[in-house]
């Protein structure tokens, strides 16, 4: 069992305030991903949970008990870092056995746990090998094995896949998720990679500059980002933004850009003259073949085929715009196309507060 609660958590290093009042409830057995750009305070928060960093202010609870000053070894937590930090002179088995031996556990107790962990992590054939004879992915699995044999109530992963190549990252993502489904313990996972966050988390916590911007299920956040930061951070290629002012004609609101492009808006609580920014995801922009007054003309700058999708880059009213297409259409740089921004896919934000307008 490990439910974790953070209440108004602050962190200050000398004069620098790094975390500004973090509130977060993590249920027992949940897989929560902390995601945000480098330097936003994710690792600091995780190290506080591990007991490796003091809490400047606020309350931290494990299973309802205040644990601000609980020593790390009493927290029933295991951590997996980006650098696997394996002992090069010890075999895989001895690397995993290092912790239990240090705690003076008898081998009759931890031996079977190592065998079970090795089987689960596909490491059984490698137990007698030295780390130098393993691939990057296998080394990362040994680091996970060390965490698993502790049978912790809470797993902390700090960017564990950053050192792996792209293909291995995708594979390990699935393995960590499968491990969680089997062990069902609580996981807090830190990453700056929003794809990792979306694919792995039961819930994701989007952080920026020491604050939480939004907490929610991955697809809820993708579909309804709470503000401009989250809208731009989650999703790849990023959401497109167009800024302008609200105009209302006979109850129909529209966005008018600086260069007088007019885009129809959904019926929301908007005021004439209000400065807003609309967002639309690259996959939601449609290319139109027939002329229509609501189409937007777009000159293409760059065409980027990825195999499964093609990205078309251009500009709408000087703002960069990306369109993601699943079909392979023959476009070239400098072509002019007509784009349609379907009203049901528009996200509308107040430019000043940056908040979503519902
Ligand atoms: P992230 O994990 O999101 O990249 P960190 O939690 O590592 O961010 O860092 C958050 C901020 O705190 C950064 O601006 C970093 O420079 C600062 N910071 C981290 N550790 C220390 C420290 N020991 N002393 C002073 N500043 C620190």
UniProtKB/TrEMBL annotation:
InterPro entries linked: AAA+_ATPase, ABC_transporter-like_ATP-bd, ABC_transporter-like_CS, ABC_transpr_MalK-like, ABC_transpr_MalK/UgpC-like, Mo/tungstate-bd_C_term_dom, NA-bd_OB-fold, OB_MalK-like
Keywords: ATP-binding, Cell membrane, Membrane, Nucleotide-binding, Sugar transport, Transport
GO biological process: carbohydrate transport
Domain ABC transporter: 4-234
Keyword Lipid metabolism: no
GO CC term (a single one): ATP-binding cassette (ABC) transporter complex, substrate-binding subunit-containing
One Gene Ontology molecular-function label: ABC-type transporter activity
Protein name according to UniProt: ABC-type sugar transport systems ATPase component
Organism: Solimicrobium silvestre
Origin organism lineage: Bacteria, Pseudomonadati, Pseudomonadota, Betaproteobacteria, Burkholderiales
């Amino acid at each position: 069992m490990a439910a974790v609660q953070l209440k108004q958590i602050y962190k200050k290093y000398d004069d620098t305030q790094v975390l500004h009042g973090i509130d977060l409830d993590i249920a027992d057995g949940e897989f929560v991903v902390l995601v945000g750009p480098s330097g936003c305070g994710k690792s600091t928060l995780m190290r506080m949970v591990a007991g490796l960093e003091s809490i400047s202010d606020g309350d931290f609870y494990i299973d309802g008990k205040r644990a601000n000053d609980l020593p790390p070894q009493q927290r029933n937590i295991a951590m997996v870092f980006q650098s696997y930090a394996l002992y090069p002179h010890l075999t895989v088995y001895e690397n995993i056995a290092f912790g239990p031996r240090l705690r003076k556990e008898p081998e009759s107790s931890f031996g079977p746990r190592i065998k079970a962990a090795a089987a689960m992590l596909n490491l059984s054939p490698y137990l007698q090998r030295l780390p130098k004879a393993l691939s990057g992915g296998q080394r990362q699995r040994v680091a996970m094995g060390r965490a698993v044999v502790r049978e912790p109530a809470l797993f902390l992963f700090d960017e564990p896949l950053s050192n792996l190549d792209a293909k291995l990252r995708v594979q390990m993502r699935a393995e960590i998720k499968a491990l969680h489904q089997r062990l069902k313990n609580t996981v807090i996972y830190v990453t700056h990679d929003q794809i990792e966050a979306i694919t792995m988390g039961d819930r994701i916590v989007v952080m920026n500059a020491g604050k939480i911007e939004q907490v929610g299920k991955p697809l809820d956040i993708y579909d309804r980002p709470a503000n401009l930061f989250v809208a731009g951070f989650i999703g790849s290629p990023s959401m497109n933004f167009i800024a302008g002012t609200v105009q209302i004609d006979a109850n129909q609101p529209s966005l008018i850009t600086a260069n007088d492009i007019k885009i129809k808006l959904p019926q929301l609580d908007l005021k004439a003259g209000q400065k807003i920014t609309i967002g639309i995801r690259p996959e939601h922009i449609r290319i139109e073949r027939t002329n229509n007054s609501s189409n937007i003309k777009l000159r293409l700058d760059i065409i980027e085929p990825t195999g499964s999708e093609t990205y078309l880059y251009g500009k709408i009213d000087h703002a960069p715009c990306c369109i993601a297409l699943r079909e392979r259409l023959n476009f070239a740089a400098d072509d002019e196309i007509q784009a349609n921004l379907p009203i049901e896919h528009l996200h509308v934000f107040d430019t000043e507060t940056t908040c979503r307008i519902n």
